[in-house]
């Protein structure tokens, strides 16, 4: 019988007002063999009180504090949760996002049928449950080999959020874990490595995840210079990693990432573009040509 343990790993920080929705979506799963590890990053609100209540209600929930020797941040919390998890499959989840009730059961069926290392699903943004809508996407398909998804990202100028992925634990042991130094686009940097290290990706059309649009930790929200710097750094790391594998094959994806970062940075952090002139040289040339043609 195929009944693998799934480890759901959630970082939390001052999420007492919203994390119950996320945990309720886990409790509602029609697949029961899971553990949920919530690692807190030093909350000062009632997050601990609320999550501990869930732990008392259901022992599959585990609530831990980030060890003091670990750097502050969600990435360190995720890595600590991974270190402690026992699952054969991993589901990373933010403390404000939601899973459909059949997410685990349906994706595991697909994993068994295809023997894929990763299973994806549909997704959509929401601010309230009333405005949730599944996003239409040409990315909804199988990929064999798995790295074809990265090529599709570049060709379609699109992406999948990290919580659509259900991944065999062994893949993270090959790819490495979250980069604890990055403050933004850390999911893009990690899952670039995860996807490349996987054999194939299967798409499951029968389930979905919800991505909360009001979350304050989105790539387009460059609220600090530190995040602006890390946005460039994340794409430098992605480019460096993929260029060592096959520079031509991933050229479109890397250019898509650079162009997206360029557009975000030029709003409030133009100096970061000029500091990284060589990295953004193609984007700058296209920008200048466009301005000239508009005159």
TrEMBL record:
UniProt-listed SUPFAM superfamilies: Nucleotide-diphospho-sugar transferases (SSF53448)
Chain ranges of the Glycosyltransferase 2-like domain: 7-172
Top-level taxon of origin: Bacteria
Keywords: Transferase
GO molecular function, one term: hexosyltransferase activity
Keyword Protease attributed: no
Keyword Coiled coil assigned: no
Protein name per UniProt: Glycosyl transferase family 2
Organism: Olleya aquimaris
